[in-house]
Specification:
Low-confidence stretches: 124-138, 140-147
Structural class: mainly beta
CATH topology of the largest domain: Jelly Rolls
Oligomer: single chain
Number of domains: 3
Mean pLDDT: 77
Largest sheet: 10 strands, mixed
Shape: rod-shaped
Radius of gyration: 43 Å
């Protein structure tokens, strides 16, 4: 069938093909299975993604798709690193990828540390920019009142942190110096855990009043006796200072008295002194310098027998990590009292003495010497108590 040009001619095929369309060449319509290419050029340049730009098709170099590497780039990313999504930010500026639900959001932030190095941070609602200057990289979660995060610090340390309202309340760090980790309550109260080159495990608490305590309610230790056994009475030497080791302080304690027992009374006008002292090290079989913590010349009467102590309490706080000693010095005018004593030190250094010693109330340090073991009395049996 032929139709004149006005109206145009239409030629109908004997057997139409599925999917055929009519195309016009200006003179007539003819069936065809090929759709002519669009004559409208795509906006933008190759790889740029189409978008509605105020009602018209738009393209931008800030939004591209790399077909070969299957990578979507936002803000003109240029990195060749692996990944399917790249969001670039200008040098020195911060950027963010946000995922939100129900008014809450999680972010991946890109920011710059104090050295100008870009670092990443995964977090929730909230911003704690005051921490950024010390972080090299960090992964965590934040909302306005609570923060958990794992971070690598610029000092080379790594930490697991818990912050409430922007204030650090607990932190675990792996320190850059040596094989050491640190568990903190705050910046002033913490415990270091370390292993030395010989495999020894070391625990070192630091703080105003910290030590080793159980989780439940505990009763602080209030009595510090000597490590050596007691022996029958012997009179001390006039003017000699006797020092007896009481142990290593692992929990801060306040001590009041140095106690001992007089078996045979002394005679004459009384000169007697008691005190608490420290040494740099535990007993080590050698002499040591003893440093006064507290001392007094006010002591119960030694012209009678029985339990004796300093007349007024010391109320002396003893910090942790102290090697604690009790000291005794008597110079009665006529006869020195005999006291229950300690023995069998065997020159291990748990008893130290200083002959013709300076008064405890006027001196500050004493040079203590070990005592030879003769199987007899070596020093008064001294005990420190908190009551």
């Amino acid at each position: 069938m032929t139709i004149s040009q006005h109206p145009p001619q239409v030629q109908t095929p004997a057997t139409p093909t599925s999917g055929a369309v009519l195309t016009g060449d200006g003179g007539q319509f003819a069936p065809s299975t090929t759709v002519p290419a669009a004559s409208v050029a795509p906006p933008g340049s190759t790889t740029q993604v189409f978008f509605n730009d105020s009602g018209v098709w738009g393209g931008s170099s800030d939004l591209t798709f790399d077909k070969t590497n299957k990578r979507l780039k936002v803000n003109g990313g240029t990195t060749t690193a692996n990944g399917n999504l790249e969001v670039a930010v200008p040098s020195g500026a911060n950027g963010r990828i946000t995922q939100s639900v129900g008014g809450y959001a999680a972010y991946f932030d890109i920011f710059y540390d104090h050295s100008g190095n870009p670092v990443g941070y995964i977090k929730g609602n909230g911003s704690f920019t005051s921490f950024y200057s010390s972080l090299q990289s960090v992964v965590g979660f934040e909302h306005p009142n609570l923060t958990h995060r794992f971070s690598t610090l610029t000092s080379g340390e790594a930490g697991i942190e818990l912050d409430i309202s922007g204030s650090l309340v607990s932190l675990f760090k792996v320190l850059s110096s040596g094989r050491k980790s640190r568990v903190l309550y705050d910046a002033s109260n913490y415990t270091d855990l370390a292993t030395d080159s010989a495999g020894h495990f070391r625990i070192a608490p630091t703080g105003a009043a910290c030590g080793f305590k159980g989780w439940g309610a505990t009763t602080p230790r209030d009595t510090f006796p000597p490590y050596l056994p007691a022996i029958a009475r012997v009179a001390s030497t006039s003017g000699t200072a006797y020092f007896v080791y009481l142990g290593y302080i692992t929990e801060a304690v306040t001590l009041e008295y140095v106690r001992f027992a007089v078996a045979t009374a002394g005679a004459g006008s009384q000169t007697a002194e008691l005190g608490l002292f420290s040494t740099p090290s535990a007993p080590n079989g050698a002499g040591q310098t003893l440093t006064k913590i507290v001392a007094t010349g006010s002591v119960d009467s030694l012209t009678s027998t029985g339990a004796k102590k300093n007349s007024s309490g010391f109320a002396q706080a003893i910090p942790i990590n102290t090697h604690l000693w009790a000291g005794y010095r008597v110079a009665m005018a006529t006869t020195q009292p005999s006291c229950t004593g300690v023995w069998t030190d065997a020159a291990r250094g748990m008893v130290l003495t200083t002959a013709s010693a300076t008064s405890f109330t006027s001196g500050s340090t004493w040079s203590g010497s070990t005592v030879a073991d003769t199987g007899a009395w070596q020093a008064p049996y001294l005990t420190a108590t908190a009551y």
